[in-house]
Amino acid sequence: MKVLVIGSVYPRFPEDAEVPWLRTSIAHLKKAEVEVQVLAPSYKGLRDHVIDEVPVNRFRYAPAGWEMLTHEEGAPSKMAKKPWLQLLAIPYIISGFLRCLAICRRWRPDVIHAHWPFPHAYIALGAAKLFRIPLVLNFHGAELLLIRKKKWVRPLLKFAIGQAQAVFANSSFTASKIQALRNVNVEWSPYGTTLGKAANAAHPVNGKFKILFVGRHIERKGITYLIEAAKYLPTNKFEIRIVGVGDLTDQLKAQASAQSGSDTQAGTQPATPPAPVVFTGKLSPADLENEYRNANVFVLPAIVDSKGDTEGLGVVLIEAMELGLPVVASDVGGIPDVIVNGESGILVPEKDPQALADAFKRLEADPSLVNALLDGARKRIADCFTWDGIIERQIAVYNKLKR
């Protein structure tokens, strides 16, 4: 079987950390003896290349210096900062459309699997129709957010869904959004982890009970509520560690500083000092792994942000569970697909610092609860989030489309 995978982002060189889940999924497709090629946009003039013995076809859509619509940050965020980048959308689609036609004419894949269907469904559709190749659309949630901001996207997505022979979604939350657009069957196709196997025991508490967050510092991650939760945690028992960077980093640091009383303009030192909040910045893979190994709980305090965006799945929770951390997260978006409350983790209401703090206190005070949640997490991963299982279900859909 031959599959052409289309996406907006793919690693540019072997050490590139972009979309590790997509790279890992393709590695497992190859392991299952599926022949794969990737079609993705160029980045600053990048030409065709090979990664993990997989050909990566790069389509050029602008002068090299302007080819920065994708990679390193989502295209919607880049366009919001630099509205002129929207002008690149038309050459992006046209160039991708023509390159897809050329690849399919030469290589004749059995299936085209297009991630982020807006706009990639329209890059794939011409070749799919002309060469009668089944089209699979894979939604991750972000493309559905565009409907709220740009009403004209709705009919385009609705039409594209109707042209596909199969539709995948990364979570039941995303699936419900797709079915609100068009009543079609949606296959659940989540991500697995890109890290190692699950640890067998809870991490020891060295000094303080360490609460770890890893991710971009953007509104929908809800980091501001995690920082506020520090006010309800004893400073001698807990420490919050925030890994990553983003648009809100400086604002979040200012909040933590004011809350601790170290900011002289924020007032006097509080009577009961909050738990310390440590910002690590962006870490190397080795340092990031060390943070996971030394933490005692992982948290994703996600919210539905002011744009209506939230977590499509929360793959970072799966990775934390794999590394032996109990998880606490908000009950929003696709997160409940990962966390069954009280079984594989703890769910709390969004935007509720007190509920976050109470969950951390429960875990710190009850090692037996931690172990029970880790047992439940291992079962949840085995049932739903192993790559072998995910790819087996994916190939089963491909095989149906071939017949």
Can you walk through the features of this model?
The chain is α/β, with parallel strands linked by helices. The strands form 2 sheets. It has an 8-stranded mixed beta sheet with strand order 3-4-2-1-5-6-7-8, sandwiched between helices. The chain has a 6-stranded parallel beta sheet with strand order 11-10-9-12-13-14, with helices on both faces. The radius of gyration is 22 Å and the shape is globular. 43% of the residues are buried.
Outline:
The chain has 403 residues and is of the alpha/beta class.
Note the main attributes of this structure.
single chain; six-stranded parallel sheet; alpha/beta; eight-stranded mixed sheet; 15 helices; 403 residues
Class based on secondary structure composition and strand pairing: alpha/beta
N- and C-termini, Cα separation: 12 Å
User: Which overall shape is indicated by the principal axes computed on the Cα atoms?
Assistant: globular
- Number of H/I helices: 15
Could you outline the blueprint of secondary structure elements for this entry?
Layout: E1 2-6, H1 20-31, E2 35-41, E3 49-51, E4 54-59, H2 75-81, H3 89-107, E5 111-115, H4 117-130, E6 135-139, H5 142-149, H6 153-163, E7 166-169, H7 172-181, E8 187-188, E9 209-214, H8 223-229, E10 238-243, H9 249-260, E11 277-281, H10 285-294, E12 297-300, H11 315-322, E13 327-330, H12 335-338, E14 346-348, H13 353-365, H14 367-384, H15 387-402
Parallel strand pairs: 1-2, 1-5, 2-4, 5-6, 6-7, 7-8, 9-10, 9-12, 10-11, 12-13, 13-14
Antiparallel strand pairs: 3-4
Helix pairs in contact: 1-15, 3-4, 4-6, 8-9, 8-13
